[in-house]
Amino acid sequence: MSRSFVRFCMVGVGASAVHILVVSQLVPLGSAPLLANVAGFGAAFSVSFTGHHLWSFPARQRDRFLAVRRFLFVAASGFALNEFAYWALLSFTGIDYRVSLIIVLAGVAICTYLLGRNWAFADATV
């Protein structure tokens, strides 16, 4: 297992914890799970980008603004997949919203890792 993958998993667990915490706090207050999921994504994005940029895939010569734009694209694409899968689990199964969210976050993580490592945080500046 590569060091970047282990670090990615550690940052991902932290970002996922933030995401789940936000959702699990908003839903009991009356927010719809899918809307709370959007807020959870927003809160987790900064944790995820900072951790991956500085620790999972560090590079001194990287253009940070290019990396944030690319990672935002990766994260937003992953979130679109996340939101669709979350909706499907909530709509067609009796699985608790928190368990559904954990399943979805784990499923999307591998795509995010591959795109993050090979594109968003690639050392190229173009």
Reported for the largest beta sheet, the result is: none
Task: Give unreliable regions as ranges.
Answer: none
Rg, rounded, reads 15 Å
Q: Beta fraction of the residues? A: under 5%
- Count helical runs: 4
Q: Can you count the beta strands?
A: 0
N-end to C-end Cα span: 29 Å
Query: Which overall shape is indicated by the principal axes computed on the Cα atoms?
Result: elongated
The average pLDDT score comes to 90
Instruction: List the domain count as a whole number.
Output: 1
Which structural category do the helix and sheet elements fall into? mainly alpha
Give the helix level as a range of percent. Answer: over 70%
Order of helices and strands: HHHH
Q: How are the secondary structure elements laid out?
A:
Elements: H1 3-26, H2 33-56, H3 64-92, H4 97-120
Helix pairs in contact: 1-2, 1-4, 2-3, 3-4
What distinguishing features does this structure have?
4 helices; 126 residues; mainly alpha; 0% strand
In short:
By secondary structure, the chain is an all-alpha fold. It contains four helices and no strands.
What does this structure look like?
There is one protein chain. The chain is mainly alpha-helical and 126 residues long. The chain has one domain (3-120). It is 80% helix and 0% strand. Helix 1 (3-26) runs antiparallel to helix 2 (33-56), helix 1 runs antiparallel to helix 4 (97-120) and helix 3 (64-92) runs antiparallel to helix 4. The two termini are 29 Å apart.
